[in-house]
Design goal:
The chain is an alpha+beta fold. Among the domains are: 6-82, no CATH class; 90-352, Beta-galactosidase, Chain A, domain 5, CATH 2.70.98. The chain is globular and about 80 Å long.
């Protein structure tokens, strides 16, 4: 970093005004005198006249203004500085004075007023907030005091080896006004904000991943706001919402010129909300992306069935959220992009979250979901009754597997759903007792023997999220409670209109208080019966609390789930097959199926990217959503190849008429007769391409028009042309049409 004598500072500022206007404060020099750093850029002086160097290490220098709690992290090699607030805030032609204060605030607190059933916002740069800054080891502690509203809390900002850390202990948040309760908090909400004349983009882990370009002009679209790890499903909507993907990862990224930033919610992720807005859409000139953290949740209800009078109720009691910790990892290299962010996040998962490599070389299996039985209404002596009906028995499953093997499918990961009486009846399922209607214990053991002899990994499935009464569990005592005080029920919605289907009885949402017992029983019972692995359904991607007397927050539920995964992982050799997975489940799963190949495709998005695949390839094997459920199998397979994803299929043995008016009626496409041959041919295509790189990480990925190019750590380059439907592997061309002619599609 260049340093200049202070006597030349004024002349230096005049000479550098033009270049500073171009570079703004991103590369501003800082002139040192007694550890006070004076900015040589006029734009920095808009924020403060002096910035102190708090601390430094071999790589980075932490900067701060002790009056406003403005924070910067400077790369000592390149001089690039990431600021916690925009440097040209006073040139913003869009923002109101209130929003300018918000841009400059290092912390924003929302609080509820239960008596009025509404919320208000407090900003640390407002006159209503007092800020006190003190030095601590490797950083500063900033205390924010909103005296009138009755809130006081401290945040520690420290420079770690290769990142900046913001840490808030939620137990230390003081609430002194009994009329107000803290509901949501944001730390450094404008960190890395992109100005209206900067080129760059945000990396959003929505579904597979998406990019939001700075200044994309989508000011009439909704800004992005989604809960990390999905919505809390205890609050059941009256109508089915739009189908969207989920945020599975506790991170986001920013790319600017040759610099990128990985931001990780390392604590508080169970209650994090990811927000993004582009210039003008944000009501300012800036492009913004940040995490906010819910301290208390809310729910709504209607009085006396009047849908026109929606009332809001706040979560009561003390704050139950875990501590909040946000990590900011700067990345500086030529042409830095989202692949560098994926690499750094993968490194974070391995080094900090105990994620281990589960992949192996020459391994590209076919993932198969088979469905055993269902409840079907039948007339018995003229009386309609629900009875268990076999859709795919154990011996029929063996027949499907044999057909796939005979067609050349050499490696299969099998998830067998609805294989017990409890599973078929939609009750809590943990006894591992094969259903007699499917062939009983003898035929199930025969299936297990066949799987072991034919390179098939068998994962009998349970999905203990919702229940009907029975099996030792009672909807009155074992159901999650909503914040509003009512029981949480899982309802079915009408496919055409999205309203509640009154013909199907709602199911009770199992309280997280029962997770430990249920999954401990699964670990014990599966181990005793020599079943080496289990699929937990979507309980590796679903997170919710219980807000009744059991008082279980999302954070506590996540902790219970992680302990349960660990127990299963310890007991079963093949561990867990996840049906998609939130990041906290990664250390405990051996496979992830149904990994999305697209984002939610919100209007604000500019491009889909296979970001979660960039993170996981070479670490945990994964598959697509079922190929045969897609309206465009060709495009799905091309996307799978470009993302390094194995293929997945749903299959049942009986004709699909057998599942009409049952819980499996969405599997209308899944009869095995029409799919075993095609699946084997499609598997052959994909496995031939991907098996050689199965243990490699993806080092580069980009799209040029309709062509996606993926580069692996062993040097293999796979290019997929979506227009011409061709695949190039190190220059060798494969035409998808050749497989179509052979019956592959």
């Amino acid at each position: 970093m260049k340093k200049y004598p202070l006597i030349f500072l004024s002349a230096f500022l005049l000479l550098n005004t033009a270049s500073s206007a171009l570079k703004e404060s991103r590369y501003c020099s800082l002139v040192s005198s007694d550890n006070i750093y004076y900015a040589d850029s006029p734009s920095v002086n808009n924020i403060t006249s002096e910035i102190k160097c708090v601390c430094e290490n071999e790589l980075y220098r932490m900067l701060a203004d002790y009056k406003t709690a403005l924070i910067g992290i400077e790369n000592k090699k390149t001089g690039y500085i990431w600021w916690s607030s925009p440097v040209n805030y006073d040139k913003d032609t869009t923002a109101t004075p209130l929003l300018i204060n918000e841009l400059r605030s290092s912390s924003i607190l929302k609080y509820g007023i239960p008596a009025e059933r509404n919320t208000k916002t407090l900003r640390s740069n407002d006159a209503k907030c007092s800020i006190f800054v003190e030095d601590i080891n490797n950083g500063i502690r900033v205390t924010y005091h909103f005296k009138a509203a009755g809130f006081r809390y401290s945040v520690e900002y420290t420079l770690e080896n290769d990142h900046l850390k913001a840490k808030l202990k939620t137990s230390e948040i003081e609430e002194t006004n009994t009329d107000n309760i803290a509901t949501e908090i944001t730390l450094l909400g404008s960190f890395g904000a992109g100005s209206a004349d900067e080129n760059g983009y945000f990396v959003i882990p929505d579904g597979s991943g998406a990019i939001i370009d700075f200044n994309n002009g989508k000011i009439n679209s909704d800004s992005y706001s989604q809960r990390v790890y999905g919505d809390d499903i205890t609050a059941v909507p009256n109508t089915k919402g739009a189908v969207t993907q989920q945020v599975y990862l506790n991170m986001y990224g920013i790319v600017k010129e040759d610099n990128a930033l990985l931001v990780v919610a390392s604590e508080g992720d169970s209650n994090a909300q990811l927000n993004a807005a582009v210039s003008k859409q944000s009501k300012t000139d800036y492009n913004l992306c940040s995490f906010s953290f819910r301290l208390r949740d809310t729910d709504t209800y209607y009085m006396a069935g009047n849908l026109g009078s929606k009332l809001t109720v706040f979560e009561g009691g003390k704050i139950k959220s875990d501590d909040i910790e946000v990590l900011y990892y700067p990345i500086s290299k030529e042409n830095a992009d989202y692949t560098d962010i994926a690499e750094r996040y993968r490194q974070y998962l391995i080094e900090n979250e105990n994620v281990t490599v589960k992949t192996k070389h020459d391994y590209a299996p076919l993932y198969l979901d088979v469905y055993g039985g269902t409840m079907k209404k039948t007339s018995l002596l003229g009386i309609p009754v629900s009875m268990k009906k076999s859709v795919t028995s154990f011996s029929q499953t063996e027949e499907i597997l044999s057909a796939l093997n005979n067609n050349g499918t050499e490696s299969i990961v099998l998830s067998y759903n609805n294989w017990t009486n409890a599973g078929i009846s939609e009750k809590i399922d943990c006894k591992a007792k094969p259903a007699s209607v499917l062939g009983g214990k003898k035929n199930f053991n025969s299936l297990c023997d066949y799987a072991e002899s034919n390179n098939i990994e068998l994962y009998p499935s349970v999905n203990n999220k919702a229940l009907y009464s029975g099996g030792g569990f009672n909807p009155f005592s074992d159901t999650s409670m909503r914040i509003s005080g009512s029981y949480s029920k899982i309802v079915s919605y009408d496919y055409a209109y999205g309203v509640k289907n009154e013909l199907k009885k709602p199911m009770s949402l199992l309280s997280p208080s029962q997770f430990s017992e249920v999954y401990s029983d699964i670990a014990e019972n599966y181990s005793e019966k020599n079943i080496n692995g289990v699929s937990l359904g979507d309980m590796t991607s679903t997170l919710y609390g219980d807000y009744g007397k059991k008082n279980i927050s999302r954070f506590k539920a996540m902790d219970i789930l992680e302990n349960s995964y660990a127990e299963i992982n310890e007991s079963l050799e093949n561990s867990i097959l996840a049906d998609s997975a939130n990041a906290y489940a990664f250390p405990y799963v051996s496979h992830i199926k149904n990994l999305p190949l697209s984002s939610s495709r919100f209007d604000i998005f500019d491009e889909d990217i296979p970001f979660i695949q960039l993170v996981l390839h070479g670490v945990i094997p994964y598959s697509t959503i079922p190929v045969n459920s897609s309206a465009d199998a060709e495009n799905l397979i091309l996307n799978a190849i470009s993302a390094g994803s194995n293929l997945s299929y749903d299959m049942i043995y009986e004709d699909t008429s057998a599942i009409t008016d049952t819980s499996l009626d969405t599997l209308y496409y899944a009869n095995y007769i029409g799919w075993t041959s095609a699946a084997s041919k499609q598997y052959a295509l994909v496995s031939d391409i991907l098996s050689d790189v199965s243990d490699c990480i993806i080092t580069d990925y980009y799209k040029n028009g309709s062509v996606a190019v993926t580069t692996y750590s062993d040097g293999t380059v796979i290019s997929v042309d979506f227009s011409n439907k061709t695949i190039s592997v190190n220059g060798n061309i494969i035409k998808l049409s050749e497989y179509a002619e052979k019956g592959g599609f």
